Amino acid sequence: MAEPQNDPLLPGYSFNAHLVAGLTPIEADGPLDFFIDRPLGMKGFILNLTIRGEGLVYNQENQYCCKPGDILLFPPGEIHHYGRHPQSSCWYHQWVYFRPRAYWMEWLNWPLLFAQTGIYRPDDEHLSRFSTLFSQVIDAAQSGGRYAELLAINLLEQLLLRRMAVISESLNPPLDNRVRDACQYISDHLADSQFDIASVAQHVCLSPSRLSHLFRQQLGVSVLNWREDQRISQAKLLLSTTRMPIASVGRNVGFEDQLYFSRVFKKCTGASPSEFRAGCELMDR
Fold first, then answer.
1. Which ranges form a coiled coil (predicted)?
2. Which residue of 26, 103, 249, 278 pairs with 91 in a disulfide if CB–CB is 3.0 to 4.6 A?
3. Following DSSP, what letter does each residue of 49-110 receive, concatenated?
4. CATH topology of domain 19-171
5. Average pLDDT for the chain
6. Tell me, what's the pLDDT at 240?
7. Beta-carbon neighbour count of residue 168 at 10 Å?
8. Spacing of C-alpha 83 from chain mean position
9. Of 51, 99, 100, whose CA–CA distance to 72 is shortest?
10. What SS3 state is found at 27?
11. Which CATH code for domain 177-284?
């Protein structure tokens, strides 16, 4: 009877654990310079981070060249067919084999490279943090202590959560300080009937065209549309919480002409200022 393989870098290892992690340092013509070929994949997930050189991943008719910074995710049952790129002198890649906790599944829905193989490439700003977490997972998994596996799983959870946080941040990036200052300036001057973008741009040390571009890029609307939204929001607040005359409400948000204020307000809300106030009073009864 053959002895079980205890080295996860060599064929025949069982991966009979919740988490196994390591670094595979492949050098051309070295002892690890062979292609992994698992046509039926594995029971768990594998994360693979290239840190040096290049690897080549095949999946039926598809292939992909892994470069430093590429993180690939192979789900259960996905084809594993990869090795050093023939034109690269080496391929060093860190990897984590794991069986996820049930609530991780949302975090494992990655953009697909091909078939079911996921891919994520952190930008330069975040790559070092992911590399550090990857190394910490490996160190914990190989430490051999009583809580080694639990600690490694905890660190892997941090890595997956970090990716989710970075994606969320990229979808909702923080406002440029100049845009934030412009918004504050506009809010402080809603009562000004004479408004021009140039004065706002001057306040935040930008050209009007640059300010307009940043506004559309970060808020999705023009400066004028954003200001109008704020004026109507402030008018709704005054109408619903004070007994201020409608003309005074209009002037408070920059409309000198009450009729024009009523027309704009109705266009934006579907009700005239008096109708809106009456509706608020009914709700308070």
1. none
2. 26
3. EEEEE-EEEEETTEEEEE-TT-EEEE-TT--EEEEE-TTSSEEEEEEEEE---GGGGGGG-P
4. Jelly Rolls (2.60.120)
5. 88
6. 83
7. 10
8. 30
9. 51
10. strand
11. 1.10.10.60
pLDDT digit string (tens) for 237-278? 888 888 889 999 999 999 998 999 999 988 888 889 998 888
pLDDT at 1: 44
What would the 3-class secondary structure string for 219-281 be? Answer: HCCCHHHHHHHHHHHHHHHHHHHCCCCHHHHHHHCCCCCHHHHHHHHHHHHCCCHHHHHHHHH
The enclosing H or E element of 148 equals helix 148-171
pLDDT of residue 2: 44
Judge whether 252 and 241 are in contact, CB under 8 Å.
no
Task: Tell whether pTM > 0.70.
Answer: no
Phi, psi of 81 (to 5 degrees): -145, 95
Contact present, 117 and 73 (Cβ < 8 Å): yes
Confidence (pLDDT) at 160:
96
Domain ranges of the chain: 19-171, 177-284
Q: Please check whether residue 204 is in contact with residue 181, taking contact to mean a CB–CB distance below 8 angstroms.
A: yes
